[in-house]
Amino acid sequence: MSDKVSTETIGKNLSIIREKVAEAAGRAGRNVNEIRVMAVTKTFPLDYVKMAVDAGIGLFGENRVNEAFEKYILLKHPVELHLIGHLQRNKARTVARIFNCVQSIDKFETAEALNRKCESIGRTMDILFEINTSGEDSKHGFRNEDDYFACLERVMDLKNLKIRGLMTVGPLTDDKKRIRESFRSLKNLYERTRERYRELEFDILSMGMSGDYPIAVEEGSNLIRIGTAIFGKRQ
Ligand SMILES: *Cc1c(COP(=O)(O)O)cnc(C)c1O
């Protein structure tokens, strides 16, 4: 990973990741084709995005709105772009313009602001609710299940948002058991939501990053968000 980043190194890293995903899926008796790999390009330059596109990646994640705007507005190739970081209400307009999905909804007011901007430009936006499954204070997301369900029911009335699933960031620890518990609790909430609201097309479970994606896949993730393992360490 200390090599210079190129389309080739990105492609190589990607095949290692896909192999590990396939192994984890195999252990869990899952179909590997249902698991998408997102390239997280935060802090990395546009050149890296272009190389990732050349290496065959079509799904990207950024966690800051301004950084994503400056970078992706220059990308000629159409890609699918998700916001995976916290959304401030005053950024809703830019978000409505450049993202395909917001994975980090954890407050009704933010969803409402986003809905309004989407309505004003005549589009709908996929959203995920972010759940804090680790209990860590540094992390965003719902900590309380009742708050989450209450918010979901209100967001269901927002015509320009489409509720698609859940996202979490696992705990920052080497304790595999705690990481697994965190992912398992998200999967459990995901399944219960699907049962309770069958009218929704609720089908995205976003969990797993460079350090923990094999566990996430074993626990049911269908979208893993990978930065470091594709591009190398961030500055
Ligand atoms: C940075 C980030 C990632 C990717 O992290 P890596 O450890 O570099 O793979 C995934 N999800 C979120 C929400 C992030 O902020």
Strand count: 8
Major beta sheet summary: 8 strands, parallel
Total of domains: 1
**Annotated CATH architecture:** Alpha-Beta Barrel
CATH class: Alpha Beta
Distance between the termini: 14 Å
Number of helices: 9
What fraction of the residues are assigned to beta strands by DSSP? Answer: 15-25%
Q: Could you tell me the mean pLDDT?
A: 96
The amount of helix comes to 40-55%
pLDDT under 50 segments (min length 5)?
none
Order of helices and strands: HEHEHEHEHEHEHEHEH
Small ligands present: pyridoxal-5'-phosphate
Give the class from helix and strand content and strand pairing: alpha/beta
Provide the CATH superfamily: Alanine racemase
Radius of gyration: 17 Å
Order of strands across the widest beta sheet?
7-6-5-4-3-2-1-8
Give the overall form. globular
CATH topology: TIM Barrel
Structure in a nutshell:
By secondary structure, the protein is α/β, with parallel strands linked by helices. The protein has helices spanning 7-27, 46-54, 65-72, 92-98, 108-120, 145-155, 176-196, 213-218, 228-231, and strands at residues 36-40, 59-62, 80-83, 101-105, 125-130, 161-167, 204-206, 223-226. The chain has one domain (7-231): Alanine racemase (TIM Barrel, Alpha-Beta Barrel), CATH 3.20.20.10.
What does this structure look like?
The structure is a single chain. The protein has an eight-stranded parallel sheet with strand order 7-6-5-4-3-2-1-8. The chain starts with 6 loop residues before the first helix and ends with a helix. α1 crosses α2 (46-54) and α4 packs across α5 (108-120). The mean pLDDT is 96. The protein has nine helices and eight strands. α7 links the parallel β6 (161-167) and β7. It has a single domain, classed as Alpha-Beta Barrel (TIM Barrel). The chain is an alpha/beta fold. 43% of the residues lie in helices and 16% in strands. The protein is globular and about 45 Å long. The longest helix has 21 residues, at 7-27. Pyridoxal-5'-phosphate binds at residues 40, 42, 63, 84-85, 169, 209-211, 225-229.
